[in-house]
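for the writeup, i need someone to sanity check this before i put it in the appendix. the sequnce is what the collaborator sent (i think, or maybe the updated version? ugh). structure was predicted straight from it, no edits. if anything looks off just tell me and ill rerun, i have time this weekend
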Amino acid sequence: MNNEDKYNFSDFTFSEYENLIDLAKKNYVFRGFDNFNKSENFVLWRHDIDFSMTSALELAKIDSKNGICSTFFLLPHSEFYNLLEKESQIIAKQILALGHQIGLHFDSHYYSVDSENELDELIAFEKVFFEKQLDCALSCFSFHNTTDFTMSCTKWTYGGLINTYADYFRNSVGYCSDSNGYWRHERMHDVLHKAEHKCIQILTHDCWWQEKIKSPKQKVHEMINAHALRKKEYYNNLLTVNNRSIIDW
């Protein structure tokens, strides 16, 4: 069996993504982490944005087109995009304008945090940063690349934000993720089709969902190249607008 079949490359297209939304609609109501009712059959539709704000916006538009509101967790310490760039700020506000929520994607590795008191302080600090930069209120956070320590942090809130890995979500709400661009456990289609969980948290990541069938590695490399191309174009345009020469060999 080749990798395309082994890892279900064809599952990760925009058309299949919309099929997942349709499946979820049949059995669940879409809610946010701050507005669900435990008596409902709800789905928490969550996006952890690890790679590309441009890709995040594509998912936001699809979600909006299909009439659902989702939560986009943005990563201040991403190695792939910069939330302080004007382009990222514009996209974040576009996502909000589409009716979605924004959460904090917290990277404990950046700080080497190893105590809940420190975690509380750092999340509160990043919450303030986000709310000032994006001019919006945050209500929740998710951990980036979980560790044994972060998985032991199961309180309802830290730093004034709801913890998506809190005891309640881990013990009373089902979970399915597309981490690393393939199904490490069950296929999301199967989980939503069977609907065995009364409530469920669905986690997707921006880069894995695209128009055409590709491998996970191909998607990441093409995303990096596209980002680099935009930077080259920005440099060329900056010099051209200011009537300066682009000097090369």
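The chain has one domain: 3-211. The beta strands are 29-31, 42-49, 71-74, 101-106, 140-143, 157-158, 161-163, 174-177, 200-205.
thx in advance!!
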